[in-house]
Amino acid sequence: MRAIYATDLSAASRATIENETCLDCLERIGVDEVHLLTVVPSNVHAGMPGMNLEQRRERGLKEYQSVMEEAGFDVETHIVRGTPHRRINGVAETVRADMTIIGSRGQSPLENRVIGSTARNLARTTVVPLLVNRIEREAEEPEMFREHLFQRMLYATDFSENAERAFDAFNYLRHATEEATLVHVQSPKEELELDPQSELDELADTLEQWDIDTRTVIRDGDPSEEILDVEESVKPTTTLIGSRGRSRLRRLMLGSVSEDIVAGAKGNVYLVPPARTAGYNLL
């Protein structure tokens, strides 16, 4: 598997890249090639006083490259200019990445409403599965909240086509997964022609065959709120969820469940987008 590892070379990014447990989890699920990527903002120019960012980032990437190569990964580095989420998606398409990884500090409720962060923008537009590594927020030497990335999974489903696509990720995640909680949230407007408990039990049987200890949960109410409440209760290392679409209109619609989970989850989030569309224009 080929992964994009997007970094701003901050202490938070260093916490994820230098975490041996995190790297071991990636190796277990089949990641063997990593593209380290950092984006220089387009409004920063080399001639600006004290703004030798590209040289500093090149040195930083070389340090990270050494760490990851020592861990056994094949590594390439990329320094690009532009809008972070667009350039990250662009490189992911160019190298045909299987996943994108980005670190994100925990945020306050107020900050969670600001839809300007790279993680939130990637949650809307990512072209490949997106792993958001949650990092401590108020620490000089931050660490990951839950470093065993895929050990305890929370999978949220509405039984849609893309929720099924997200569940398919267990085909490789299972090599690092020991426990899983499967949750479905029923809303008053929902009209399903299937029995949620039977559907969850069928999914649970699949995971049990892979020796993953699995439980199921059905809730009523607002999907985002209920999923986050279950996450707070079971404390998974990562929440797995599918996103809806990537249309221009969809990007402007705030408050989608996937974006809410990326913003509000205490632990890591693994977001699976719809299948790639041939000829899709990222810009």
UniProtKB/TrEMBL annotation:
Signal peptide: none
Pfam families xrefs: Usp
Domain of life: Archaea
Domain UspA: 6-132, 150-273
Family: Belongs to the universal stress protein A family.
PANTHER family with a match to the protein in the record: STRESS RESPONSE PROTEIN NHAX, UNIVERSAL STRESS PROTEIN UP12
Name of the protein: Universal stress protein
Organism placement in taxonomy: Archaea, Methanobacteriati, Methanobacteriota, Stenosarchaea group, Halobacteria
